[in-house]
Design a protein that fits this description.
- It holds the Pfam family RNA_pol_Rpb6.
- Belongs to the RNA polymerase subunit omega family.
- One of its GO terms (molecular function) is DNA binding.
- The RNAP catalytic core consists of 2 alpha, 1 beta, 1 beta' and 1 omega subunit. When a sigma factor is associated with the core the holoenzyme is formed, which can initiate transcription.
- The protein is an all-alpha fold.
- It has one domain.
- It is built from three helices and no strands.
- Helix 2 crosses helix 3.
């Protein structure tokens, strides 16, 4: 993953869509997680380490938060919890 810059090609979109009920759910799920990762890096820069969870997969500095989030979803590191 590190340094690959494959975007949506890696992981394949079909693999990602198998893990959610719709493409819209995938977009919302990945964007919320990407925001958490972005907040984590901002907090890390400020010295606040315990407010957000960092990447759950191997990543490099060049990897964008959305790419990291998609890899986490593809590797089943995250699960969608539907509100009841």
């Amino acid at each position: 993953m590190a340094g690959s810059n494959q975007g949506i090609i890696d992981p394949p979109i079909d693999n990602l869509l198998d893990r959610v009920s719709s493409k819209y759910e995938l977009v919302i799920f990945a964007s919320k997680r990407a925001r958490q990762i972005n907040d984590y890096y901002s907090d890390l820069h400020e010295g606040n380490l315990f407010d957000n969870v960092g990447p759950l997969v191997d990543s490099s500095v060049e990897d964008k938060p959305l790419t990291i989030a998609l890899h986490e979803i593809n590797e089943d590191k995250l699960r969608i919890r539907h509100a009841e």
